[in-house]
Amino acid sequence: MTRHFLDIDDLTTDELLAVIDRSEDSSPPRVLEGKGMALIFEKPSARTRNSMEMAVVQLGGHPVTVRPDEIGMGTREKVEDLARMFAGYHAAIGARVFDHDKLERMAAVSPVPLVNMLSDVAHPLQALADLLTVRQVFGEFAGRTLAYVGDGNNVCRSLSLAAGMAGMDVRIGCPEHYLPSTGDQATIWSSGVKPVLTTDPLEAVQGADVVYTDAWFSMGQEEEAAERRPYFHPFQVNTELMAGAAPDAIFLHCLPAHRNEEVTDDVIDGPQSRVWQQAENRMHAARGLISWLLEQ
Fold first, then answer.
1. Are residues 267 and 132 in the same domain?
2. Is 206 annotated in the active site?
3. What pLDDT is recorded for position 191?
4. 156 tagged catalytic
């Protein structure tokens, strides 16, 4: 049966760790030799395009990046028709979309693996890169605590699932009206992950090994920026907040960062920051995932 990757809990814990293991293999099997992978970008991203294209190349394949104006996703053509069509050319499909429902509809008909490169619900490729970074720094997951502070968004959902499944303690600190949605909380809890939810950023980071944040507003939410800033300002990751974490804590951010909003320059550029290692790991994690999917 074709395996798709729409969120972290499409994998078991053992499978998740196997993908992380493969991500550290710098000489992976060339499972895409003579084959292609379609990379559909309804929502653009510099990191996702570069990391995915290079991951495909390192697996011996040819990446074909597709812009939204080339296909009219869900307008000129049904997403199901697009999935069937691209599957005729390629060994796998990646899609970065605004609406998660489009991914589910494509996966329902695609005979080749479909990879979620981001949706409004989940960002599982980022979570894989995050776990890879944590293991490179600390060597293991058990006994470590991850604190996510900021907006309880798609990054928060996938990261919480991944970290919890890997054996980390998870704390989520958000303004009251920006905690993960009831549906996201139900998904996280149903997977067996039991994060601590708090509206106090200091409580969230206390003694944590990893402090993680994301932009307070995403692409397409720019008009909400002024409204959101007063709620999120107490959750800014600055030297004072980092001081509450463990002495050897690291800082992570999925990027792009709005500097001196959700994180200050002295943190993102400081000695505890691992954001550039984390960004590079997007490529390694994608390579590990694609390799694993194609060998199922």
1. yes
2. no
3. 87
4. no
